[in-house]
Fold this protein.
Amino acid sequence: MNEPKTKGFIDFLLLNDEEARMLSGEHNLVRAAEGIRRLGAKGVIIKRGDAGALLFHGEHTFAAPAMPLSDVVDPTGAGDCFAGGLMGF
């Protein structure tokens, strides 16, 4: 990946695992986040659906697991709610 002229322009990029893989060309999410950070994002948050989310920032990685539920009715919009809560905080 080429270094962008706007390196560091984006503080955080929040995307799902499939989008991270497509953007970076990497299947492994750690390598995908590294590739995305090389594009200019200071931090990357990758949503993993029912597996939670991963945060990559500086030399740090944080994994936030999802709460396991026995009966999921309709998770539509859960990732958008997560993003809204994160941005609102």
